[in-house]
Amino acid sequence: MAEQDKPEVVDVHPDKRQHQDHKNKEDADLRGSKGRLKAIASEYYVDARLQEVEQEDLAHRSATRQRHVMQKQQANLEAIIALTYDQCHSETAQTPDPDWLVRFFDLARNIHGHAMQQLWAKILKQEMLRPGSTSIKALTILETMTQREAQALQRACALSSTFGQDSTKKLVTGFRRRQGLVQLLRPEPPHKLSLGHYQLSYTDLMLLMDLGLILRTELESGVIEMQPAMPFKLQDTQYMLTPLHKGMRLYYYRFSPTGHELAKLVGKRVHPDYHHAICELLAEGFEMHSDVGDTVNTHA
What we know:
By secondary structure, this protein is α+β, with helices and mostly antiparallel strands. It has eleven helices and eight strands. It comes from Salinivibrio kushneri.
């Protein structure tokens, strides 16, 4: 018996397949550098020389692009105002300084990302509640910052602390004893930890230094006196530090005045692992009491 011919498979949706093939080709083109560049150039109205058809004259194209830029800037400002309004409640507020407002809007119009727009909205609300809270210099630096740089600052703030009577934020990295005669013969290594283990890489640290938000040199505090105990505020917890030995000093990186100013805007996160690690480290050289009465260590 002869083998029967197999029935012919008929594609009942040729248009659908053609559409899918076309879409796959478009996706592949977009993944390539040329396709990606075309998409970017089209979005920003600078793709005339990449088109095969004749475009309008240069003056018309320039006017179109400028109109597009102004529309985007207007949309950015309106988004920031809407976000500020959502953050406001029934607080007593004032009108910020007119010169400050002009500079604020001039800089804020170029803020496109939603997360950064939320930050600028927070700044505007704070300025209405407490005029003079954020300087024009801080706004100028913030306007140049990318999302990645802002996230690096936020990670640094999560590790920040203050000590003594100085309220400027710092990144404490460890401590050492002052080198006496015995220590010179048998030096004691400093007790330190790496910030890179707590999501603040060396690259991030250098990035913040390049922006002028953290001073470039790791500093060493003066000798910490045995009495009275020194205040040490780590994130939301207040400690009192009493050295176990004479001549104790802390190592730290210091936020610049502008960095400290911006840190107050983005520094609400905490890093529990760092908190635990720095307390364990400091407990090797200090007696620490928290503001709730707990004792971190009880060395003799």
